[in-house]
Design brief:
Shape: elongated
Structural class: mainly beta
Largest sheet: 7 strands, antiparallel
Radius of gyration: 25 Å
């Protein structure tokens, strides 16, 4: 039986936003205390989940960032950080205290060192990286281009490279050198030092290779290194299997996923790192673009505007299977969703609004069987077809009332 839930209470005192009252997205920040994070107008605001006045999040991200333009905003929390994107502005993260850039952008160049008397003779190649040591947000940038330095019984003292856009989360740096004639780079300083600290190199090849760890597990790979920054401006983000998973505005049918492992803060998530090989392509098999992502137990459900897919297995392993569920639709291409707000998980069920009805996927007990959505809206299809879900919607599960709630916009008849 369709009905509205009786009783309501206004949570916010002051209005959200900056005069433009369109709410582009919201998410609960799980911290101490929990807060509701709302993207409204050109502002990102925080409000206690129990109610109160919204306040703008502290703005500490680089001055080179464009101001928020207002666009559908996606948020996902992982590893103590809330990651925020809208496909237009820079990808951001919130650590409960400040807004920062997602990932650390590599510096452009490393300046030539100051030379003094020492024990090096020959030509050596150097690279440098920038580091963020902010709690629960440690990340290392991609390296600078290689710099060749020639010594004649000398040593070199290097200064930190310039920080792009004066990114405030960047506070330390590493210097790397390749052994003479080699292509693998080793750290000169074992731990990151402050940007004001210079680094001197007077280490012979034997000591360098024996006593200094490499960057990651191999030589630098340019933009495909271990801590590659996000591949573009995401317009959808979710978390699955301890990774961030997202789609960028520049590749609307490519699913990117972040790295996995211990970061510098000792957290078993590396949402800052996006290796260039971490993606799955969907092409135009079920629609013109990916419209929604949601983690559903062992499966990652990928929605396109005319198709629904389930991804099974470890995203980074070659045996990962992308499975197309059997769907019923008038054009035989499947249901799909038009908006990421039109999909929700309710206990062991996943609901989504297709173009011709409301569908449900039930968790299989073995989870090895093919995922099979079933249409459940036959008794309300006349009402359903009067609601325009293509312009957006919202779906939630009310655990207290044990109700699945779906909102749509306006009549189309």
């Amino acid at each position: 039986m369709l009905h509205t839930r009786p009783g309501r209470r206004k949570l916010n005192g002051a209005l959200f936003g900056d005069g433009a009252r369109t709410v582009y997205g919201m998410e609960v920040w799980r911290g101490s205390p929990d807060r509701l994070i709302v993207a409204c107008g050109s502002l990102l605001q925080s409000m206690p989940t129990g109610g109160g006045d919204p306040t703008a999040l502290p703005t500490s991200y680089p001055s080179g960032f464009p101001s928020r333009t207002g666009a559908v905003t996606s948020m996902a929390q992982l590893g103590g950080r809330l990651f925020i994107c809208n496909g237009v502005d820079e990808n951001l993260k919130y650590n409960g205290t400040a807004l920062m850039r997602m990932g650390v952008v590599g510096p452009a160049t490393l300046a030539a060192p100051t030379l003094s008397a020492g024990g090096l003779t020959g030509t050596f190649q150097y690279k440098a990286t920038l580091v963020s040591s902010i709690a629960a947000g440690a990340a290392e940038s991609e390296p600078t281009a290689a710099l060749g330095v020639t010594y004649t019984a000398q040593q070199g003292t290097f200064s930190a490279p310039a920080v792009p856009n004066a990114d405030p989360q960047v506070d330390r740096w590493f210097l790397y050198r390749a052994a003479s004639g080699g292509s693998t780079f080793y750290r000169i300083n074992a731990t990151a030092v402050t940007l004001a600290t210079t680094i001197s190199d007077n280490i012979d090849d034997t000591a360098l290779v024996a006593g200094h760890s490499m960057y990651g597990d191999s030589s630098f790979g340019g933009s495909g290194g271990a801590n590659a920054v996000p591949p573009g401006k995401f317009y959808i983000l979710t978390q699955h299997q301890g990774r961030l998973v997202g789609v960028t505005a520049g590749a609307i049918n490519r699913l990117y996923f972040s790295d996995l492992g211990l970061d510098a803060a000792g957290i078993f998530f590396k949402p800052e790192a996006w290796p260039a090989t971490n993606y799955l392509d969907f092409g135009d098999q079920g629609g013109t673009q990916i419209t929604a992502l949601i983690s559903f137990f062992d499966w990652l459900i990928v929605e396109q505007d005319f198709g629904v897919w389930s991804v099974q297995g470890d995203l980074a392993k070659p045996d990962t299977r992308t499975i197309a569920p059997v769907l019923v639709g008038p054009d035989k291409r499947g249901a799909g969703v038009a908006s990421r707000g039109n999909i929700a998980v309710a206990e062991n069920h996943l609901y989504f609004t297709g173009k011709d009805g409301l569908y449900r996927i039930v968790k299989d007990t073995t989870f090895n069987a093919r995922v099979r959505p079933e249409k459940v809206s036959e008794h309300i299809d006349q009402l359903y077809h009067e609601i325009d879900y293509t312009t957006g919607g919202a779906a939630v599960y009310d655990r207290d009332g044990r109700r699945f709630v779906l909102w749509g916009k306006g009549r189309i008849t």
